[in-house]
Amino acid sequence: MVLTGLYYALALSAVGIAVAYFTHSYFGLPFYALAIFCLWFFRDPDRAIPSGPVMVSPADGKVVLIRPEGGKTRLAIFLNVFDVHVNRTPIAGVVKTVEYRPGKFLVASKDEASTQNEQNTLTIEGEGTTVTFSQIAGLIARRIICNVKPGDRLAMGDRIGLIQFGSRVDLVFGPEWTLEAREGQRVSAGSSVIARRK
Questions:
Q1: For residue 96, what are the contacts with CB-CB under 8 A and spacing of at least 6?
Q2: Does 60 lie in the same domain as 7?
Q3: Catalytic annotation on 167?
């Protein structure tokens, strides 16, 4: 579990205890329920990382968009509040850039969220390829957490951070990859294969 979830759960539990103390005991129940939800939401399960010349999904969720873009492919994954929100690096390599950009909080499943919403974009370079992916805040998500910095060396599937509550992750990669994912497919961070090297 991500430590952030424990902080939320403890705070909500404290509010629930206070409300129950000063009112009727059952008035604290909604806060206890929210505390349990936070513990569940911030879960961080281990994943079996595949081997070979593949690219894995950087997020859990549903593939909502695949389209060509300037000779590359853009793939978007929408995460609802029931998905695991820990993000992972799609390939092994070195973090070249990490760029945060403030923005709006549009519904993350909409295409304009890619350009208008708050986001954090990482560029990973490794084994002759460069992959860019963006952690994009959604309607509910209001905080992007990134735990890596330029110069960090990552293995495929390493955890890089999370987006709190509903959100989106966009992935951009070049023609040296053969796409395996499809629109409408549900994927899991670190374990679902998105593409293979040609």
A1: 123, 124, 125, 130, 150
A2: no
A3: yes
Domain presence at residue 62: yes
Domain identity same for 159 and 181? yes
Closest CA to 119 of 168, 58, 75: 168
Same domain, 73 and 37: no
- What confidence tens digit (pLDDT) does each residue in 28-65 have? 888 878 877 777 777 899 999 999 999 999 999 999 99
Identify the active-site residue in 57, 109, 167, 192: 167
Strand partners, 28: none
Q: Based on the fold, state whether residues 98 and 21 are members of the same structural domain.
A: no
CA-to-CA separations, 98 to 5, 37, 39, 58, 179, in angstroms, rounded: 24, 31, 28, 15, 25
pLDDT tens digits, residue range 120-166? Answer: 999 999 989 999 999 998 876 668 999 999 999 999 999 999 987 76
What's the full length of the chain, in residues? 198
How much is the average pLDDT of 61-81? Answer: 94
